[in-house]
Design brief:
This protein is mainly alpha-helical. The chain contains six helices and no strands. Helix content is about 80%, strand content about 0%. It is globular.
């Protein structure tokens, strides 16, 4: 079970690092890739990106270093909330095609949260 949780954690972390780095450090590329970015402030997009990057670190390092490992499921829960709110934004914008990615990353984050609590 521990190996499976590490695999799920790694997949989630890679996805959030990719997404978060685009939002936090490559705003123009994010704007070209995702339609919703044009409709919210740049500061909010960067904030979401930094939150995703911090969450990606949070689902790996505390558990890996065995330093306050309770932060791992807390970070995973926070990432699940970010993804859930993202899905709600897509529903409001009628971007139903985009929700599939949200469902996958929501599931990954919830698996990590439940498995590590």
């Amino acid at each position: 079970m521990n190996i499976a949780l590490w695999i799920v954690s790694g997949l989630a972390a890679l996805g959030f690092i990719y997404s978060g780095s685009l939002k936090a450090f490559q705003y123009e590329k994010a704007k070209a890739s995702w339609g919703w970015v044009k409709d919210v402030s740049k500061g909010f997009v960067v904030f979401i990106g930094l939150a995703e990057l911090l969450g990606a670190v949070g689902i790996i390092l505390p558990q890996a270093l065995n330093v306050v490992p309770v932060w791992t499921p807390i970070a995973a829960t926070a990432l699940a909330a970010v993804v859930l709110f993202g899905a709600l934004l897509h529903v409001n914008r009628k971007e139903y095609r985009e929700i599939g990615v949200n469902i996958v990353f929501f599931a990954l984050a919830v698996i990590v949260a439940i498995g590590r609590f």
